[in-house]
UniProtKB/TrEMBL annotation:
EC number per UniProt: 3.1.3.11
Reaction catalysed by this enzyme: beta-D-fructose 1,6-bisphosphate + H2O = beta-D-fructose 6-phosphate + phosphate
Domain of life: Eukaryota
Residue span, Fructose-1-6-bisphosphatase class 1 C-terminal domain: 187-316
Alphabetical list of CDD domains matching this protein: FBPase
Cellular localization per UniProt: Cytoplasm
Designated name of the protein: Fructose-1,6-bisphosphatase, cytosolic
Amino acid sequence: HAADAHRTDLMTITRYVLNEQSKYPESRGDFSILLNHIVLGCKFVCSVVNKGEEQKKLDVLSNEVFVKALVSSGRTCILVSEEDEEATFVEPSRRGRYCVVFDPLDGSSNIDCGVSIGTIFGIYMVKDDHEPTLDDVLQPGKNMLAAGYCMYGSSCTFVLSTGTGVNGFTLDPSLGEFILTHPDIKIPKKGKIYSVNEGNAKNWDGPTAKYVEKCKYPQDGSSAKSLRYIGSMVADVHRTLLYGGIFLYPADKKSPNGKLRVLYEVFPMSFLMEQAGGQAFTGKQRALDLVPTKIHERSPVFLGSYDEVEEIKALYAAEEKKA
Ligand code: P6P
């Protein structure tokens, strides 16, 4: 009757987070309440994305839903959204201890053609009770307590880490609950896929160009890697997490800091990759060690299977030696 037990023992994301919380007896459940409000926002976005409303409204609508859900949770003090130029400072009466950085609808330019898109988020704790300032959110990614994404595709998948590994949950529309479907995700140590926008190749620096060359024309007799590039970070990262390989958005001559944003794209995905046994590198350092100075700062990123990122790191280190 194992199947029945599984069928009746519903491990919802709420229950999973409560289990996690029970490991911290002193916790007041704030994190569980915060996460439930993020999950609520994702369920809303999932419903409107699937209704096929046109793109221009959806990213604004999604942002409003997340900001309102997070403020009303009473557990946040600073919000940074890809959609808002300035950070949102929650008024004192509704203030909590968490800073949430998020992209409410990353890859939204892909909506009209039905490509999977997603919400990406990261959660910091405010250092101590003082008047919150931007410094409370300009923390290195390694200080994040949790990070995750929700992918709106053929199914709605919520991938989360609270610092003790990575778990994937799938929305059961009939229940309106995210159910644990991918327990303890580990990224394969190596991978056969590389994921990059080859259209930028003419502007790449040496190490990136050398690495991609090795993927296409391996010198060690191994078979060439396959190129898979969806152009929607959540979809490309989700595939990388499950199948292995490497996702790269390098710097190039036109964009010396690459394109992806540190706080709500690079950090959450790097956090997940490390929690799943992979790595994330900026070309200069471990991605999670980066200390951002602006809330919409960009960084190059190479993330995925442990061994693949090691190769990139070696090529950049060799370049460093030459300099
Ligand atoms: P490019 C989508 O616009 C996005 O921010 C990420 O989701 C995606 O990985 C990247 O940009 C794609 O950028 O320059 O390859 O189109």
